[in-house]
Amino acid sequence: MPDRRRRTPRAPEGDLPAAYSSGWPTLPAPAAGVRRRDRRGRGLRGPLIPAHLPAARTRAERFDEIVLATVERLERSWAKQLAGTEFAVEDVPPSDPAPWEHRRGVPMGRYFPADGPLAHRIVVYRRPVEERAVDRDEIAEIVRTVVVEQVAHMLGRSPEEIDPGFVEGP
């Protein structure tokens, strides 16, 4: 197939700078992160949603806020018992489930007892919760269920004692 690009006229070899020695002009490499185009006169593209608006948060940030709100609500009633307990969010559970989790499917949360210098820790797994939920309200309900169940396990109490409005979850 013939080359359809137009060649620039060639000057004698001795008269051209090194960049033009092949007959094709070369452009300098663009600076990193510099926008060079303003298509159709509308200006350079900007962010769709400014970073200070709530809609600019990621799913992970919204999930963290749901877990934090759930924990804060529980701490109002159980502050003394939950003092020093760490709450965390991880994307997915580790690939080696605990022996009691083997037949129950993918865990949505896990309680790790204190071990030496490490404090009690409750972890909520974001992706399994999001996969089971239909919308944001259901995510909040599942998170509430998971956190209440794990706190109840940690304190050796029933979930209904921890949260009187507790409803058995997924």
Structural notes for this entry:
This is Putative Zn-dependent protease with MMP-like domain. GO terms for molecular function: peptidase activity. This protein has 170 residues and is of the alpha+beta class. The chain has a domain at 59-162: Zincin-like (2-Layer Sandwich). It is built from 4 helices and 3 strands; from the N terminus they run H-E-E-E-H-H-H. The protein has a 3-stranded mixed beta sheet with strand order 1-3-2. The longest helix is centred in the middle third of the chain and has 24 residues, at 59-82. The protein is elongated.
Name some characteristics of this structure:
170 residues; alpha+beta; 3-stranded mixed beta sheet; 32% helix; elongated; Zincin_1; Putative Zn-dependent protease with MMP-like domain; peptidase activity; Zincin_1_sf
Which architecture of the domain at 59-162 does the CATH hierarchy give at level 2?
Answer: 2-Layer Sandwich
Measure the end-to-end span.
62 Å
Q: Strand count, sense and closure of the main sheet?
A: 3 strands, mixed
* Unreliable residue stretches: none
Strand content: 5-15%
* Radius of gyration (Å): 29 Å
The helix count comes to 4
- Mean pLDDT value: 81
Helix content: 25-40%
Shape: elongated
Strand line-up across the major sheet: 1-3-2
Task: Please name the CATH topology of the domain at 59-162.
Answer: Zincin-like
**Main CATH class of the domain at 59-162:** Alpha Beta
Q: How many β strands by DSSP? A: 3
Structural class: alpha+beta
- SSE run: HEEEHHH
